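Reminder to self: tokens first, then the designed residues, so the page reads top to bottom the way the pipeline ran.
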């Protein structure tokens, strides 16, 4: 088949809402688009373990520590599902990690902020996982089969993550004046970066055109952000937290909240490597990746011993 015939056949499958599977013919640009998005998603899950990992030894109770440990392990598992999905597109794990280390591949803006207090662990679970779920539920219907299937498994776990974060915030808002202040301070610092997680406005989103044509994205950045705001503002009200946006107002006509302008200069600074923790996050990943080289070598040697013909 020539290139035009392959593209035609491929687009027909997409238009019929059929999944594209690894062995199906696909345009190079679709493959590259997916590698970019899925690998960035995988890197986000793994780098996202760092701000929370910093609190395992300081969790305020054994129960809190067990929950946090389980959540962070889930994030590692999400990274593994997603790296495996990306590898079906004919790129190796080593190449994916090299792209992360060189800065070619991005990861979510949100993980370049520090987790300063225990309330930040609540805010991360509630707001960051909450934003991630809204995005990932819509990706369950993405057109690439392995990515969509990974999303089903991930969404089930993310909803536990969101609830454990909300529980921490609710608990603190029921506590002393200092605890309430700590929870509000975490809300103030994590709210705007969480809104940025959905990416630039649709009008400034260069990847959205092809993403919609190929049904990689089912909903736009702005629609998902709005959905997140509408459900989260109500949750904040229930526990007495104030959303740090003076322009936030219910719009009766549109039946959703109007909100203030996002600081896109800050977003661009953070995603181009100049946020508060970018260097720390990547240096940490490089250090432990290098220290873990012997584990990868041992696992490879073992798999070759039991399966001598395996590559
Ligand atoms: N951060 O043209 P668009 C989680 C970049 S998982 C950094 O709109 P697209 C779970 C974008 O890559 C969180 N960069 O791009 C957890 C592009 O640059 P490029 C991760 C961003 O792909 C919780 C440029 O801006 N979730 O949190 C961001 O169509 C707690 C233009 O943007 C996913 O990755 C950003 N927020 O739409 C784990 C979901 N937004 O690549 C641990 C899957 C945009 O051309 C602890 N990804 N950029 O150089 C997606 O749905 C999409 O990729 C979007 C961006 C919506 C993020």
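Designed residues (311 positions):
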């Amino acid at each position: 088949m020539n290139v035009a015939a392959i593209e035609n056949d491929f687009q027909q499958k997409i238009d019929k809402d059929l999944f594209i599977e690894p062995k199906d013919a696909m345009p190079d640009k679709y493959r590259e688009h997916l590698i970019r998005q899925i690998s960035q998603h995988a890197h986000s899950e793994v780098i996202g373990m760092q701000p929370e990992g910093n609190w395992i030894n300081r969790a305020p109770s054994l129960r809190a520590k067990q929950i946090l440990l389980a959540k962070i392990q889930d994030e590692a598992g999400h990274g593994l599902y997603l790296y495996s999905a990306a590898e079906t597109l004919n790129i190796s794990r080593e190449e994916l990690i090299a792209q992360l280390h060189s800065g070619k591949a991005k990861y979510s803006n949100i993980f370049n902020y520090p987790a300063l207090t225990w309330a930040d662990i609540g805010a991360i679970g509630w707001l960051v996982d909450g934003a991630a779920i809204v995005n990932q539920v819509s990706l369950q219907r993405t057109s690439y089969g392995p990515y969509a299937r990974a999303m089903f498994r991930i969404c089930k776990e993310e909803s536990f993550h969101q609830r454990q974060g909300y529980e921490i915030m609710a608990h603190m808002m029921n506590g002393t004046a200092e605890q309430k202040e700590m929870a509000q301070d975490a809300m103030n610092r994590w709210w705007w970066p969480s809104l940025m997680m959905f990416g630039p406005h649709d009008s400034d989103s260069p990847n959205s055109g092809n993403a919609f044509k190929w049904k990689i994205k089912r909903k736009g950045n702005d629609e998902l952000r709005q959905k997140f705001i509408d459900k989260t503002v109500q949750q904040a009200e229930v526990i007495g937290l104030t959303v740090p946006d003076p322009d936030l107002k219910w719009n009766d006509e549109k039946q959703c909240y109007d909100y203030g302008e996002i600081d896109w200069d800050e977003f661009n600074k953070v995603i181009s490597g100049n946020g508060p923790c970018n260097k720390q996050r990547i240096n940490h990943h490089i250090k432990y990746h290098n220290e873990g080289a012997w584990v990868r070598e041992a696992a490879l040697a073992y798999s070759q011993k039991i399966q001598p013909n395996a590559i």
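The mean pLDDT is 96.
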